Amino acid sequence: MTVDIMWKKLPIKPIEVSLNKVLRCGQTFRWKNVNNTWSFTTQDRIVLLKQFEDHIQYSWIMLEGQPKDVPHSQLEKETTSFIEDYFNLEVNLESLYKNWIKADLLYKKKKTPFQKFPGIRILRQDPWETLISFICSSNNNVKRISKMCDSLVNEFGEYINEYEGIKYYSFPNFQSLAKPGVESKLRDLGFGYRAKYIYQTALKFLDNEKYPDITIEKLNDLRLQDYETAHDFLLQLTGVGPKVADCICLMALDKHDIVPIDTHVYQIAVRDYKFKGSKTMNKQVYHQIRVFFKEIFGPYAGWAQSVLFTSDLGDLNNGINKVEVIKGEEETIKVENKRGILRTL
């Protein structure tokens, strides 16, 4: 299927958004890099992004069968609004980096990660997708999480359209994941014990009689609530512990100061910032490290932590979701890079 692509520009420099970094550092798992074009689906379109030195080009492909009488200007406005919201573009990242560098140099005499890894910002993702994605993240790595999210959309999502010979699907809603047989199917797809977590969480959103306080509306409204309220709500859900809840709070619910603590972040705190505490991770130490980083980096400490985490990974050339499309006269060949980076969550 051939689709005419019309590209538009947004004046965003890599210092504010580095697509190659921010879309591969373990925040989001469904973006595909197809011949240096990043692609992703919302509920009604494929969003396409390309990075240049002084701007980002963007375009979109609408849901197949979508009425064609919708004005192009409206579709452009909707896509622009999605990009601005998704990438938290109202936040001046360059200004934050300057403050973080000053704070960081109090601890380090050498070049800091904030000078070496520009353009990494926290995304503002859909709360439901973020919830399910990070349930998948338990004791997992980025490559496998990405494959699981691909399996979810391909098996349970709605078909959107095709780009470069690849079929794209929306992320499945809770109704789709609460149907009989879903848990068994997820196990067949390699989700292991996470299959039960996803299915039971979806059932809680479906059963309003038994769980009247667990609804998508209340999940989305957590953006307007304080951290404690949001965190407590998330802990009701099967497969969500304190770390996963913190990831969702930071990456979907506007809790910018929250620092999720895993092995990487704990090691960074001890090795680079001389945090002194128990060598065993427990609830008290978890809280102490969160407070410790907030005292250093301020109200956007969660954003700063993402840069430190990415720096600790070192090599982002992991090939996750990178697809080269080679077109011939008779067929399209998709070649996926098989390398991945372990991230224990």
CATH topology of the domain at 8-88 and 123-255: Endonuclease III, domain 1
User: How far apart are the termini?
Assistant: 40 Å
Low-confidence stretches: 326-345
The structure class reads: alpha+beta
GO cellular component, one term: nucleus
Main location: nucleus
InterPro entries: DNA_glycosylase, HhH-GPD_domain, HhH_base_excis_C, OGG_N, Oxidative_DNA_repair_enzyme
Pfam family, one: HhH-GPD
Task: Give a structural overview.
The protein has a domain of 214 residues: Orthogonal Bundle (Endonuclease III, domain 1). It is built from 15 helices and 9 strands. A 7-stranded mixed beta sheet has the order 1-5-4-3-2-8-9, with helices on one face. Strand 2 and strand 3 form a beta hairpin.
Question: Keyphrases for this structure?
Answer:
single chain; 345 residues; alpha+beta; Endonuclease III, domain 1; seven-stranded mixed sheet; two-stranded antiparallel ribbon; 9 strands
Strand and helix map with partners:
Elements: E1 8-10, H1 19-22, E2 32-34, E3 37-41, E4 45-51, E5 56-62, H2 72-86, H3 93-104, H4 113-116, H5 127-136, H6 142-156, E6 159-163, E7 166-169, H7 174-177, H8 182-188, H9 194-206, H10 216-221, H11 227-235, H12 242-252, H13 263-273, H14 283-297, H15 301-313, E8 322-327, E9 332-336
Parallel strand pairs: 2-8
Antiparallel strand pairs: 1-5, 2-3, 3-4, 4-5, 6-7, 8-9
Helix pairs in contact: 5-12, 8-9, 11-12, 14-15
Function: DNA repair enzyme that incises DNA at 8-oxoG residues. Excises 7,8-dihydro-8-oxoguanine and 2,6-diamino-4-hydroxy-5-N-methylformamidopyrimidine (FAPY) from damaged DNA. Has a beta-lyase activity that nicks DNA 3' to the lesion.
Keywords: DNA damage, DNA repair, Glycosidase, Hydrolase, Lyase, Multifunctional enzyme, Nucleus
Enzyme class: lyase
